[in-house]
Amino acid sequence: MKLLISVLLSLFLNVINVNSQIYTSNWTSINSRPLPSWYDSVKFGIFIHFGVYSVPAYSDGGYAEWYWWNLESGDDNNSTKQWHGEHFGPNFKYQDFAPMFNCRDFNANDWASIIDKSGAKYVVLTSKHHEGYTLWPSEQSWGWNSVDVGPNRDIVAELTKAVKNLGLHMGLYHSLFEWFNPFYLSDKSSGNPPTKEEYVDTVLMPQLMDIVNSYEPHVIWADGDWEQASDYWKSTDFLSWLYTNSSVKDVVVVNDRWGHGCRNTNGGFFTGSDAWLPNKLIDHKWENCETIGFSYGYDQFEPAKAYTNSTILIQKFSQTVSCGGNFLLDIGPDAEGTIPINMQNTLLDIGYWLQINGESIYDSSPWRVQNQTSSIWYTTNKSNGAIYALVFEYPESGQLLLNDPICNSNSQVNLLGFKSASKITIQLPKSNDQPGITLNLPFASPQDYPPFVYVFKLVGCN
Ligand SMILES: *[C@@H]1O[C@H](CO)[C@@H](O)[C@H](O)[C@H]1NC(C)=O
Ligand SMILES: *[C@@H]1O[C@H](CO)[C@@H](O)[C@H](O)[C@H]1NC(C)=O
Ligand SMILES: *[C@@H]1O[C@H](CO)[C@@H](O)[C@H](O)[C@H]1NC(C)=O
Ligand SMILES: *[C@@H]1O[C@H](CO)[C@@H](O)[C@H](O)[C@H]1NC(C)=O
Ligand SMILES: *[C@@H]1O[C@H](CO)[C@@H](O)[C@H](O)[C@H]1NC(C)=O
Ligand SMILES: *[C@@H]1O[C@H](CO)[C@@H](O)[C@H](O)[C@H]1NC(C)=O
Ligand SMILES: *[C@@H]1O[C@H](CO)[C@@H](O)[C@H](O)[C@H]1NC(C)=O
């Protein structure tokens, strides 16, 4: 019996050994890790910017989450400073907004449910933005976190639980730097590059390990990286621990914002610039973090015309996926914890579109051609060879010319969600095996058209 147990135990340990890979603290090693497969297959996530900046919810045309930075601007004419003075008086400090961050209507299950209805499969919440205020009770941010001041709630814990309950992946954004953290400012003044790393050792590293150990996020989305090289941030130390030792080592995915010069070079998926839409195939997994309005954090003065409509957003989503990217769409809830209604409507629109067209998105791969024009884009299902043409304008003429698919007399086509009873037919080129087909659509009235972006599914073509 003892022998049997020890044999089984050693078999078990062997299995563990086979699966456990050791990553060391250098970029060559970190970059060699394969991307956990869930991330590429899900394609769509929701970014959430939520913090003390959600209280003033004001921006001078930039990002509302930069309010404190703008407030400290040396220029007395600065519009944030002016607006702040008019509304709160010159003696009202940014920190005084924290008690007003009450989140009294925040219901994590409601947020998770709206996100789930959008068809998104992962969430990335700002655990800490550049202001340093944390949405969990961080010991390194005493008196400046959501349990000590503001809602007196652990927002990260509540949302993590609600999101995981619906079977979605929960992720956390974390700013490496803090504009006004005294330890960071002191490190920065020690030299360039800094000769001491007190902020990293006593604040950043304990916080990163804390959020991983406490909440087991499936995404760590670093930002605020650009002032220092990754050596200062000790990014590879953290990532080697994350990939080798943490409880999420097999599932966690990270981005590329780990230090000056890391973007599109080091880490996990690439993010380029904010709202990056390269419109060509990128041969490394990447992500487009888009906004619905302009600001990531809630800006209560953003007018209707600043918001992109669902049609355009679904077009950008299609372009992103065609080129191998994931779409991370941002919402900015208000300080009461309500997701603005127009943002909710956008999420529901995307969810409706995905219910009809999800097979062209989830688990899809880029096709050999990404686009024919700026309004015809492709994806493919590699397992069964189906090709999807995502078309932005309805072919009112009744004909759609696709230049690149090679079809034959057995090929089939349909328009997903098309209500017309009559079939679409394929007109082949005059000689066999030539690329290029014409789709002949039956007459249909606009109420028969599917919503937003029109997805033609081609079977038996290549
Ligand atoms: C990085 O780590 C790997 C694995 O330990 C090692 O083989 C390699 O020499 C290291 N590279 C550098 C540049 O230190
Ligand atoms: C206000 O100051 C900030 C910080 O210096 C700056 O980024 C922003 O552009 C300024 N706003 C205006 C309208 O000048
Ligand atoms: C601020 O605005 C006033 C009035 O428009 C102008 O006279 C002054 O030069 C401005 N100051 C700066 C620093 O731009
Ligand atoms: C991480 O795991 C490796 C391999 O099991 C081990 O050698 C190393 O000591 C661990 N590091 C930490 C910080 O636990
Ligand atoms: C969406 O916005 C685009 C660009 O502003 C506009 O051309 C289009 O008509 C809008 N679509 C709807 C349905 O409002
Ligand atoms: C892709 O094709 C495979 C094989 O037919 C199928 O099981 C899978 O459901 C398809 N993917 C999607 C998202 O429809
Ligand atoms: C693909 O789309 C991009 C962005 O709209 C455009 O610049 C490019 O010309 C398109 N490619 C083709 C082959 O039309």
From TrEMBL:
GO terms for molecular function: alpha-L-fucosidase activity. It catalyses: a neolactoside IV(2)-alpha-Fuc-nLc4Cer(d18:0) + H2O = a neolactoside nLc4Cer(d18:0) + L-fucose; a neolactoside IV(2)-alpha-Fuc-nLc4Cer(d18:1(4E)) + H2O = a neolactoside nLc4Cer(d18:1(4E)) + L-fucose. Residues 1-20 form the signal peptide. SMART domains: Alpha_L_fucos. It comes from the Eukaryota. It is an enzyme of class 3 (hydrolase). The keyword Hydrolase applies. GO terms for cellular component: lysosome. Belongs to the glycosyl hydrolase 29 family. Alpha-L-fucosidase is responsible for hydrolyzing the alpha-1,6-linked fucose joined to the reducing-end N-acetylglucosamine of the carbohydrate moieties of glycoproteins. This is alpha-L-fucosidase. It comes from Dictyostelium purpureum. The lineage of its organism: Eukaryota, Amoebozoa, Evosea, Eumycetozoa, Dictyostelia.
